């Protein structure tokens, strides 16, 4: 290693730094930079000749690899239609969110289809995993169970057994004896993931790596692993809610942003096949501050309820509390409402929430957010049979969003009768819903709440 080689790494994003500093320049996280042992000395000099690698062309006669279905539709969907052989998948999420539960269920389900599955637990003893399996009613599934953290032994076992899929729970507990660092450190996690991914490709064994993320990024975030794997799935959900969302944030074999919805029950995770019905609360009575957003998650439409509460503030700087949406987006919408429509929120606390624990990232939610805010502020309910969607630009204009037809179809299916959407949306005329097309936010405010 030359002297200038960085030996400090951010545990949140994996960026390398030459010296210790309080804040990572790459991701902005505080107190996440730790000293690391150098990864590998590498070749002494590149002057020495390597061997030439064989090159092929892009044409192939082979069919695309058959995907293995897990028997859990919501999981198959997120994987892009089933498990691709020899692929590497990272499943990340907060501790306690249900990763081990989901993967044990998936392992059992795959095993019952006749695939050879190994589940290697580095966190729990075999007896604990068996207890969980019993609780989930999976004790008779033919899953090979191992409790081990030494990666050399694990790789030897995988090589001997050659399963179709190996689940490593979790990557943070694995250690290589060739790396001088504690398990869970960035160098160990990176080296272990690299070994496993390389093994997967060479030997045709699919691997699932479980990774914990904490909001503080205290343990080596699986972020460093994201670049190495084919597919990154995040398991999300609020601890207090029973709903869990498995989201594909990267997928080399399918659409990204696809979601699978699960419910945590006393007998493990159950699939939720109609998420829209679940994310909508009881909608018989009109309630001020509530607006239904017709969104798209991955390839499928999902209706969610956006809830807002606006109350006089006792604080010098009023509160802006957001759950399930980007807080920067809320600030932008509040600013547009004030500047373009003359509706200020100064001196008012604003609370904004997506019901059910879903995270909404689409800009198409802007209009529903604005509607919920206005409805709460004016104490006027939005008709309970109305959905809204549309992006708000800084000028206050409403911009059409993609997949208008799918959004309307889902809303109509769930019994909604009217939709507010931007002028110029491509509806293709095939809906029985009453459409209220709005060119801008001012027109919307005028129509819904009187002249503002
Ligand atoms: P777990 O899968 O251990 O989480 P992770 O591997 O992501 O850390 O999930 C643990 C939580 O799930 C725990 O709080 C208990 C709950 N749980 C249930 O509610 N029902 C069940 O059937 C199981 C197995 C767990
Ligand atoms: Mg676990």
Strand content: 15-25%
What separation lies between the terminal Cα atoms?
66 Å
Tally of DSSP helical segments = 11
Outline: globular
Helix/strand class: alpha/beta
Give the % helix.
25-40%
Number of strands: 21
Small-molecule binders: thymidine-5'-diphosphate, magnesium ion
> Low-confidence runs (pLDDT<50, min 5 residues)?
none
Taking the sheet with the most strands, its summary is:
9 strands, mixed
Q: If strands are numbered along the chain, what order do they take across the biggest sheet? A: 6-5-7-8-4-9-10-11-12
Please state the average pLDDT score.
88
Q: If you compute it from the alpha carbons, what radius of gyration comes out, rounded to the nearest whole angstrom?
A: 25 Å
User: What does the oligomeric state look like here?
Assistant: single chain
In short:
The protein is an alpha/beta fold. It has helices at residues 73-78, 99-112, 126-135, 151-161, 186-203, 223-226, 275-279, 327-341, 366-378, 404-413, 441-449; strands at 8-10, 16-17, 33-35, 88-93, 117-121, 143-147, 165-169, 206-212, 231-236, 243-251, 259-265, 268-271, 290-297, 300-312, 320-323, 348-354, 386-388, 391-392, 398-399, 418-422, 434-438. The structure holds thymidine-5'-diphosphate (TYD) and magnesium ion.
């Amino acid at each position: 290693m030359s002297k200038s080689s960085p030996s400090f790494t951010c545990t949140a994003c994996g960026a390398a730094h030459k010296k210790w500093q309080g804040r990572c320049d790459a991701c902005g996280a505080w107190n996440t930079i730790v000293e690391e042992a150098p990864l590998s000395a590498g070749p002494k000099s590149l002057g020495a000749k390597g061997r030439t690698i064989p090159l092929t062309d892009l044409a192939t006669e082979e069919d695309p690899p058959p995907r293995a279905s897990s028997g859990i539709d919501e999981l198959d969907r997120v994987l892009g239609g089933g498990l691709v052989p020899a692929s590497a998948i990272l499943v990340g999420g907060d501790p306690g969110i249900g990763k081990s539960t989901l993967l044990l269920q998936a392992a059992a389900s795959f095993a019952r289809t006749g695939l050879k599955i190994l589940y290697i637990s580095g966190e729990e003893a075999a007896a604990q995993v068996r207890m969980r399996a019993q609780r989930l009613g999976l004790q008779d599934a033919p899953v090979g169970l191992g409790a081990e953290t030494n990666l050399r032994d694990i790789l030897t076992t995988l090589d001997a057994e050659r399963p179709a899929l190996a689940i490593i729970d979790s990557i943070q507990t694995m250690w290589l004896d060739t790396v001088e660092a504690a398990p869970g450190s960035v160098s160990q996690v990176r080296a272990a993931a690299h070994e496993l991914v390389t093994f997967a490709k060479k030997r045709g064994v699919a691997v699932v790596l479980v990774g914990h993320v904490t909001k503080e990024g205290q343990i080596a975030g699986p972020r460093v692993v994201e670049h190495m794997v084919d597919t990154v799935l995040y398991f999300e959900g609020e601890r207090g809610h029973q709903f869990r969302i498995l989201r594909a944030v990267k997928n080399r074999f399918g659409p990204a942003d696809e979601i699978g919805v699960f419910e945590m029950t006393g007998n493990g995770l159950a699939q939720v096949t109609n998420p829209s019905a679940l994310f909508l609360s009881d909608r018989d009575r009109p309630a001020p501050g509530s607006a239904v957003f017709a969104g798209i998650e991955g390839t499928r439409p999902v209706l969610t309820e956006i809830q807002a509460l606006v109350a006089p503030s006792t604080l010098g700087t009023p509160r802006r509390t957001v759950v399930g949406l980007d807080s920067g987006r809320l600030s932008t919408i509040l600013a547009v409402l004030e500047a373009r429509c003359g509706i200020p929120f100064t001196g008012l606390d604003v609370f904004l929430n997506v019901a059910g624990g879903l995270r909404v990232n689409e800009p198409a939610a802007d209009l529903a957010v604005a509607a919920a805010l206005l409805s709460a502020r004016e104490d006027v309910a939005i008709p309970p049979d109305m959905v809204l969607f549309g992006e708000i630009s800084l000028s206050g204009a409403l911009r059409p969003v993609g997949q208008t037809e799918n959004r309307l179809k889902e809303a109509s299916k769930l019994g909604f009768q009217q939709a507010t959407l931007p002028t110029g949306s491509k509806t293709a005329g095939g809906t029985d819903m009453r459409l209220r097309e709005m060119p801008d936010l001012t027109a919307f405010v005028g129509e819904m709440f009187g002249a503002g």
